Amino acid sequence: MIVIYMLWLRELKRFLRSPVQLVGSLAQPAFFLVALGFGFNPVFEQAGRGNYMQFMAPGMIGMTVLISAAFSGVAVLWDRQFGSLKETLVAPVPRIYIMLGRTLGGATVGVLQGVLILLLCMVTGFRPQHWYAVVLGFGFVGMISITFAALGMVIGSTLKDMQSFNVVANFMVMPMVFLSGAFYPLDHLPLALSLITRINPLSYGVDGLRGTLVGQWHFNYVQDMGLLGCVGVLFLIVGAYCFSKIEI
User: Fold this and answer.
1) Does some domain include residue 22?
2) 38: which residues sit within 8 A by CB, 6+ positions away?
3) Residue 106 lies inside a defined structural domain of this protein
4) What is the pTM of this model?
5) Element (H, E) at 142
6) How does pLDDT run across 175-221, given as a tens digit for each residue?
7) Domain total for the chain?
8) What is the domain range of residue 232?
9) Using CA atoms, how far apart are residues 162 and 169, in angstroms rounded to an integer?
10) Residues contacting 213, CB < 8 A, separation 6+
């Protein structure tokens, strides 16, 4: 277990020692919160849907955590390029420990960024329905982080250059964000779009966050947690397999 801990700590220190990454990770969510949150709030209220900032904030938390966790897989490519991955892989420990340490490190970074964006949302006017709901909500933050950090590990273990990683990750991440209900309600969608949102794992993470934090559910707690957990386990298994096949 010391191997998992050390790799987890390495990923955490890498994030905390990069203030540019720390601040830059909040730029896009802050823009969405200000531009869309305040811009669409009058329209949302006129439609009888309540306060748009209350609706949008859980989606911004989910989006931030997803992007942070998924792009943690690029560290595998950095280490491969500079040779440190080779030194790690020749260590006399099972590769699954290395993969788990990296994945948990990326997931922890995602949770920390979730905390930061929650504070930013509260500055802009968001308030959870109950303060203890934040604890329940961060159960979903942790699930999103682990699920998509494992997905990032799958991508990082499969590809061999950082340019390809950015293309593939953006191709997968942005559709997941916009088809998760982060920006608009999932009810009354066309059938085809509704089916896509149901196979999007982030939809269940965002719904779980919105349900626990503000009491607005599209699915339900058991469905959200169960399906997101199953996808997370699947990504961990696939990630472990892909990481075990890396050749230096």
Assistant:
1) no
2) 53, 124
3) yes
4) 0.90
5) helix 133-158
6) 898 999 888 888 888 888 889 999 999 999 999 999 999 988 989 89
7) 1
8) 2-12+50-244
9) 10
10) 57, 58, 128, 129, 133, 134, 137
